[in-house]
Amino acid sequence: MKRLALTIVSALFLLTAAFPLTxxxxxxxxxxxxxxxxxxxxxxxxxAVGADARYDLSEEVDAPVQLGGAFDYYFADDQQVVGxxxxxxxTIFTVDLNVHYMFPTQGTVSPYAGAGxxxxxxxxxxxQVNGVTVQGASTTDTGLxxxxxxxxxxxxxxxxxxxxxxxxxxxxxxxITGGLLFYL
Length: 184
Fold this sequence. Notes:
3 helices
């Protein structure tokens, strides 16, 4: 599981490095925190921390568009093993790749809306119950994202807030995210 998370984070950084940085292009990265209000919250994963990366494509495509990638690690409750008083540790993380349309505005607020792909991975550890190993489980689902939010111009910093809805198989993710982006 940790190897998969490392692979995904590495892929996000390689994706952002694949776009040549020009003097006109802007690359932003920073920390983020998410409050879950959807099915992940119902499963005991109410809060996540992660990282956000955004690349401004305005010069390349002649439109106010940016690519956004995010990784979130959820602090999930342990999962109760059926028929016992034991619980198994649960790990949940998400990876999102979105395209944001930045609405043209004058001022310090830059609203955006977009869509993309979301990946949700969940796993539970093996656990011993009365000397018998109960096998853990792992699942990874891919879904579609709808996202909307705003970046705030604060000099070299870009605080942001956004809402995101993701339909992933039988799971619907909805979260409110806030973070702080730094220009590179």
